[in-house]
Write a structure and sequence with these properties.
single chain, 5% helix, mainly beta, 3 helices, 5-stranded mixed sheet, Methylamine Dehydrogenase, Chain H
Amino acid sequence: MIRQYCGQLPRACHRYLLLYGILLWIITSPADAGNLRDKAAAIKSPLSLHSLLLDGAAADGLMAVVGERGHILTSTDAGRSWRQANVPTRVTLTGVFLQDARLGWAVGHDATILRTTDGGRSWVIVYSAPEEERPFLDVWFRDAQNGFAIGAYGLFMVTADGGDSWFSSPLNDEDDFHLNHIARAPDGKLFIAAEAGTLYRSDDGGETWVSLPSPYQGSFFGTLPLSGDALLAFGLRGHLFRSEDAGQSWASVNSGTEAMLTSALELKSGDCIIAGLSGVLLTSRDGCRNFNLRQLAEREGISSLLAGTEDTVLLLGEAGVRRISLNDYSERETLYLQPEAVR
């Protein structure tokens, strides 16, 4: 199973690491890697809603989620029902960003970047470099023209024309740490979470970046910028830290778990949720300072979180998409694919 999902690289499959707890990629033969580089279009399937999904994004009433086999699904009703998109590749997709209800980008294996201009119904490849054997792991855009795609071995690509062209702009010529996640703070600061205890911050919209002091040497899989200069960073073995000064200093937060922490979400109420392997959910009602540990009965790994309605949140991961209640964390009604999506 791991060879199927992580055959391209020895280290870089971080979102799979999030789900399976594997710290190193297994190196496979060129023939195995070639199987993952099938450029045929993603197959429409009623099971896509329950396949491995790795990231999600929302903007202006549109949701998009991405995952294995080139699956991209969209929803316009807060995640109750979904359509599977027309996608011209079957590579595993690891990150997605929506600029608005029509424009968005997705990234994944083979250094693939996709773009949609019709609200996620169809996507086109705007960049691909399978010969580099480095996947992208996340993508973020400042506006419709300027964006970044980040990934394995220090992969950092920049566009200034909406994704028509991309150029390399490494953050650090000395290190090739995997860049796992990029997040924007309410005041415009940007943060990148990386491996080996590496964190970066940009105060000018990504034009320049500085390394931040690190509270530990393990991998970070994400950050959650909060109001003011408050910031959470999380990663391996339940490690969770909080900064009150935009990452210049850190305090450890007791997570109550050694499960890998993968994603975090601040709700409109100001409450926070952090998700991880084994169905772990950490919930906070005091401004993201202290957390209570919950664990879903099925213990399926969670890779990403999306806010649903006021009383629901969407979990993306091993079980595909699940919609749970914020009141008792039980699963809400069964989600479904709209029939025309799988014809």
